[in-house]
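Hi, here's the filled form for the chain we discussed.

Project: internal
Contact: R.S.
Residues: 428
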Amino acid sequence: MEPNIKPYLSTLAPIREQLHRRPEEGWTEFETTWLITNYLRKLGFSVKVGLANILPSAVMGRNEATVEQAQQRALLNGVPVEFLSEVSGYTGAVTEIKTGRPGPTTALRFDMDCVPITETVDPSHIPNCRGFASERPGLMHACGHDAHTSVGLAVAKWLTDHKDDLSGTIRLIYQPAEEGARGAAAMTAKGIVDDVDNFIGAHIGSRAKLGELLIATGGLFASSKIDVSFTGESAHAGADPEKGRNALLAACDAALLIAAIPRHSAGESRVNVGQIRGGEGRNSIPAHAELMVETRGLTCEVNDFIENKVRAITNGIAQAYDVTPNVTLKGKALTIAVSPDLIETALAVAKTIPGIRKVATENRPTASEDCTVFMHRVVDHGGRALFFYYGANHQGHHRSNFDIQNEAMSYGLEMFIRMLLKLNGRLH
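And the returned structure, exactly as it came back:
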């Protein structure tokens, strides 16, 4: 059947603008989770929220103090205390529609967190012009996850009206903490995609321009997000410096050596020391220092090589400076899990969408995505996985002037709907 998405387009911009005003970083998306859940339950969906979708032992990069502050903020902004009790300190939502007819289980994934960037005050920036710029200094939807969530809710609205056109089960996953590659691992470990036959994730923008749909056949780096800390011994820098053990100098030395890790012949790699903190004062030997490190590899093996070098450097520096090291994995992403037949299906489906001027595959190295963790789990359990980009014209992701067009969301919505009809349609 030929879908009519026009009745659902009007929901995209208002939801996206509401989300854009109230950006929330990973594991603190309580207002966002409430908006999603309230919307879905009003449509008649049964929704599992928070801890029901999370395995706590697999959670990475979550700060209890920040989470508690976020819950208090959510209360002040209208999130019911009963809902906060229901989520049990965790964010995210999962719902599904069972058609009652035999067919595959297809899961769609939409991420929901923001990035720690202050939105531009440039008056020509559309969110400023139209009054939906971020109300939270230092936080912004500068990667399009507000658009992803809006598309995901529009898909849900379409499902309520077209259940009779489908077979099998459709599962919608609204994932927290994609930035830093943290949320997918905890949801995957809970088993929420273990029975999935077809899994589809997507991202707005990237290299895809407005009117383009790119089907990923590679290009997403495997990545590790690593916190490194050194603990030494403080001492007076003038009176008895020999009694101190300088954690800050250890961190500085480690940073230089990490940046110099040799690359690997098996594929492209990246390594970055994004932050260094340490020291207590000008006249004290610093006893504490921390590094925020990120590794990436075009294969999981290349990324593991870089990550292991980071760990080896940390241990070696610690021994040289007589300080105590600690390495904590804060996030993890994998490479694309490729399902060739599903890619061919997606290419064919994309070419049927009115207004799309370019359909192609995409495998150039770009960034990392923890949607890959879901993808590998599904494929490992015998299913198929797909990731695509729906284009937008923008100034670059993770920039203070990032913005997208409403039309871009409409193409993403139609691609998801047409894929559902192809995979789960009754007449398929």
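Let me know if anything looks off before we file it.
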